[in-house]
């Protein structure tokens, strides 16, 4: 599905640069040993900005829940309605969640709890790659 | 001195604070509402500013005070969640001629400052305390309650206004019609989420966890619409008195399945205002005072892009404990609940969190199959909420006050109205007020 191209900013550029290299990275606070996503300027636990680093993830996760979009406000996606939007939780920390269209999964037949593997999808406007997830196994 | 957002110290957002130090020392007396409209017709006398002034004046009149007795104003500056003034469109000349402006040309049109209100309500000659309770009336109410309790103001107006312009809410706005995404959109709307998506996703998880289904929501939503049609101040009662049936609900189109059209509220224009004071001052006022037993807030810090079922349940459990601890009451003391409903699919988180009518986790949708009407033993959301009267996020407060004053009209619950609770909006970020007909 033709997603909008995310425009990186100073805060999240490492995430999007890694996506272009087909790597999934997430912010980690060294002091708290705690992942957080979406990226923030400080650790949401200790409020420190000094201990944040980017940590590479395995790219494995599972489906937490989902909804099916029938009335999408994003013009470029509306032509593909209805479509799945699943919430994926990362293997390293189920508290860290990302969205996915679950390419290859039929509409409204989302296997909640199933294992998924990250893949990277180019977006039309700028070519910026974004993480997507596919059911495996 | 410019009005600022209320400091964190004014909110009761943690457990273990004990009974609220100002329990039953603050009362609500007056209520004022503007008319409602689906969208602004760009005439001056139906503008956000005009209707907010109207609501305030009605609250003052309803309480039976003179304007110069008012010494406080608590309000929200934000007046929409998704309807910006079109870029480049001039402000109507007549509005500019009628009202005094502030530095922000959209004041009174698409936002509302205390400065604008005070400039345009010259009768408020004695206001010495102003504060913003940002976002919603629920927030402004708890700030006002705390302010009166602390003696920062004795006769305090509380205001929330809403504007709505042409065009579909959210659609084509905030970059959603562009080929690129910036800011927070990179983590959500990149995938095409709509406002109700997160709640729909939580509800899916809820149904899977407890073995429930979306059809079980029908009695609640039908009851909301019924109660809304009994609310003469609300949008549907004023403009589109349409009854909703279970069949209508079940046949409605999906927005973000499992959220359908009737699980969403309709954006409208309206302003609402209340007058808070002390029990002593209320003795000379026109309406029966409604005592505030407690206020509580939730400030959950989410782990990721949006709240999960687990976060919603943890937050509302905590809210329930805070509500009862601070008020010194138990769930069985509640005559009714008016927790937020916009979206309808998270009302059960609130309802279960406060254990209304003894409902435990996972039981709310079964509870909805029982008599939850205003005539029954457990009136759920007698206001009808946003679903029943349009998106203002304040109907539940008005109804709570009216129920306890005995002037809810056709919506008056049949059992004695003694204590009620209202608040919202979201399960993981709301503000809640406990109201009582008596100080005891």
Task: Describe the protein.
The complex is a heterodimer of chains A (137) and B (440). Chain A contains two helices and nine strands, in the order E-H-E-E-E-E-H-E-E-E-E. Chain B is an alpha/beta fold and 440 residues long. A nine-stranded mixed sheet of chain B has the order 3-2-4-8-1-9-12-11-10. In chain B, strands 6-7 form a two-stranded antiparallel ribbon. In chain B, helix 10 packs across helix 11. The longest helix of chain B has 19 residues. Chain B is globular. Chain B starts with 26 loop residues before the first strand and ends with a strand. Classes of the chains: A mainly beta (137), B alpha/beta (440). The interface between A and B is large, with 43 and 45 residues.
What are the main properties of this structure?
heterodimer; A: 137 residues; mainly beta; 5-stranded antiparallel β-sheet; 3-stranded antiparallel β-sheet; 2 helices; globular; B: 440 residues; alpha/beta; Peroxisomal Thiolase, Chain A, domain 1; two-stranded antiparallel ribbon; 12 strands; 15% strand
Main beta sheet of chain B = 9 strands, mixed
Assembly of the depicted chains: heterodimer
Strand order of the largest sheet of chain B: 3-2-4-8-1-9-12-11-10
Gyration radius over CA of chain A: 15 Å
Counted beta strands of chain A? 9
Largest interface, chains and sizes: A-B, 43 and 45 residues
Q: Counting H and I runs of at least 4 residues, what is the number of helices of chain A?
A: 2
Supply Rg of chain B: 21 Å
What spatial form of chain A do the alpha-carbon principal axes imply?
Answer: globular
Regions of chain A with pLDDT < 50 over 5+ consecutive residues? none
Main sheet record of chain A: 5 strands, antiparallel
